[in-house]
Amino acid sequence: MRPAALLAALLASLTLAPGAHAACRGADGSAADFGGRTTFLWRPEALAAEKARILKDAASVPAYAALIKDADKALTRGPWSVMDKIRTPPSGDKHDYMSIAPYFWPDPAKADGLPYINRDGGVNPERATDAYDRVRLGDMASAVQALGLAYYFTGQQKYADRAALVLRAWFLDPATRMKPNLDFAQGVPGKTPGRSFGIIDTAELLPVVDTIGLLQPSGALSAGDVAGLRQWFGDFTTWLQTSDAGHTEHDAKNNHAIWFDLQFSDYALFSGKTDLARAEIAAFADKRLAPQFTADGALPQELARTRSFHYSTWTMQAVYDIATLGECVGIDLWTYQSPDGKSLRKNTDFIARFAGHEDQWTWKEIDMNKQDLYDALVRASWGYRDAALGAKAKAVGDYGAARITLTTPPYGP
Q1: Which one of 5, 100, 301, 413 is separated from 185 by 20 to 30 angstroms, measured CA to CA?
Q2: How many angstroms separate the CA atoms of 253 and 386, rounded?
Q3: Would the pTM of this model clear 0.90, i.e. be above it?
Q4: How many domains does the chain have?
Q5: What is the spatial distance between Cα 345 and Cα 323, in angstroms, rounded to a whole number?
Q6: Secondary structure (3-state) at 39
Q7: Nearest-angstrom CA–CA distance, 169 and 177
Q8: Pairing state of beta strands 98-100 and 184-187?
């Protein structure tokens, strides 16, 4: 099929009137406006715009070349499994996910180094070894995302088939699947086998959910596979809701609570528990935005960290994603304003003023990564349909080769 015909077919598949925006409808996500693809955080208009750019001139989209390179590598890597770690969790079952806290290190004053001690901001490389599942989880999620996006942009079945194989190995195959719990996530050797903070590890699964939606037209996942994946995420949602770790994380007063809300809401939607997602998102403004932010839009808990820029902007990424999910359940967080004048727009203005002026960030930051701000602002630009925020994102730097530009490019011309 010629590029022009491909583009016409693509635009027809969106089933949108000119100038309209795709709607997210509860557990069905954007499927009605996106050719049966159930996505929640990835906006069909953004994906379609990037696909149109690629069809017109792929060489002008560096992120596409990087994506295909990653997807081609993923064709021969994996599949990954929690069974591959060389240590066994305290449960005696390798199907249980296991990781150690990133900022905890052996105590040099102790012969055995136990218990490990905290060094905020300094990641212990032991976390990335084959003894644990954290890197394996990230590799699996990144590969699934690359393969799913490659299928969407090229239509080549080989990418969808490989993504489906990887998904089955991690979530469905009885011999290799991860159990839907984080009982042993971010443990501290010598102190505790797992902590509530470990729930943030599975934020890696957020793009996996939308990738499953992108794969739906391919047929690579059977109806039984999709039902099994929904069941896995439904069981994980139940664990988040009922476990001691889930209760503790839900009650946190910093970014962990916000990332908990995002995961819980997204996985609840995907698994068909729309009422749970709606209730969580409905409480978000009063429960998180009002108490965690200052009147000028700052996050004091994150500004106190050794990586204040990262944690402030990374937390805002989650806030914007929750606001995006709010659109799926009829809750508008974008225009929220508290009785004392706090608002998501003020929070946005606080970080946006540093776009292109990151050197004016006066709080402690031991490892500045400007893309954290870019990734936040592109989300905000779509939420507000604000080309000025899109321009702010571009002012942070040239991230044209970053994968996020394929799913969430800066809004505007």
Answers
A1: 301
A2: 30
A3: yes
A4: 1
A5: 12
A6: coil
A7: 6
A8: parallel
Structural domain span for residue 243: 75-251
Q: 65-89 burial, b for 16+ CB within 10 Å, e for fewer?
A: ebbbebbeebbeebbbbbbebeeeb
Which residues, including other chains, have CB under 8 Å from residue 192's CB and lie 6 or more apart?
A: none
Other CB atoms within 10 Å distance of the CB of residue 362 = 8
Two tokens, residue 133: 């599942």
The whole-number pLDDT of residue 21 equals 80
Distance CA 193, CA 98 (A): 9
What distances in angstroms separate CA 269 from CA 84, 96, 322, one per listed residue?
30, 24, 12
- Signed CA dihedral, 392, 21, 49, 223: sign only: positive
**How confident is the model at residue 183, as a pLDDT?**
98
The pLDDT value recorded for residue 3 is 47
CATH number at residue 205: 1.50.10.100
Residue 33 is assigned to a structural domain of this protein: no
Contact 326, 262 (CB under 8 A): no
State the Cα–Cα distance between residues 218 and 233, nearest whole angstrom.
Answer: 21
Consecutive sets of 10 residues in the chain, 413 residues long: mean pLDDT of each? 50 49 94 96 96 94 97 98 98 98 95 94 94 98 98 98 98 98 97 98 98 98 98 98 98 97 98 98 96 96 97 98 98 96 96 98 97 98 98 97 97 92
3-class SS of residue 241:
helix
Answer yes or no: is 257 within a domain: no
Rounded CA-CA distance 394/400 in Å is 9
Query: Is 193 inside any structural domain?
Result: yes
CA distances (Å), origin 84, targets 163, 167, 174:
19, 15, 14
Q: Based on the number of CB atoms within 10 Å of its own CB, is 32 exposed (0-12), middle (13-18) or buried (19 or more)?
A: middle
Q: Is residue 51 part of a domain?
A: no
Instruction: Write the DSSP symbol of residue 399.
Output: -
Sign of torsion over alpha carbons 281, 282, 284, 285: positive
pLDDT of residue 18: 43
Token pair 């590598």: residue: 73
222, 146 in Cβ contact below 8 A? no
Q: pLDDT at position 101, please?
A: 96
- Gyration radius from the chain CA atoms: 21
- CA torsion angle 134 137 141 146 (round to 10): 80
